[in-house]
Fold:
Amino acid sequence: MVPIPVFRVLRPAVDVCLALALLAAVPALPAAAQAPATAQDAGPTEPLTIRSKSGSHAFAVEVMRDDASRARGLMFRRSMAPDHGMLFDFGQVLPVNMWMKNTYLPLDMVFIRADGTVARVAADTEPLSTKVISSGEPILSVLELNAGTAAKFGIRAGDRVEHSLFKPH
Structure:
């Protein structure tokens, strides 16, 4: 998953074109970084809990806090444990666009506000797609889970995500 930086412009079509053009200008990953990755390539994890109407659901998440780790995300990985995920910390609240280029796993993307509430869920995203997936509003973070997880646990807008990144009101 590659987060696409969003710039303030008047028209969404211009926004998408500009973001894609900027990403095209970024140098390609080194050959070693393009090698197929596995679940064993997962880094350190932190606990995260989602509270939905169906209860509390615990996950171990890798947290991507810098540009390099956010750019790589889950690209090239072939599997992820069912109770794991990846949390993208953007460090500020802003509109975010994501895509699935070089990402083999179908994912659910949970867009999260600074207070830890779910803004929206993009379920079952298409692997290897360059289709832009928008946060729909300014957010602080995106949580990627295996596709089907949001439906399985009934995760939806308004649910609460608990992690040290989020500061509830």
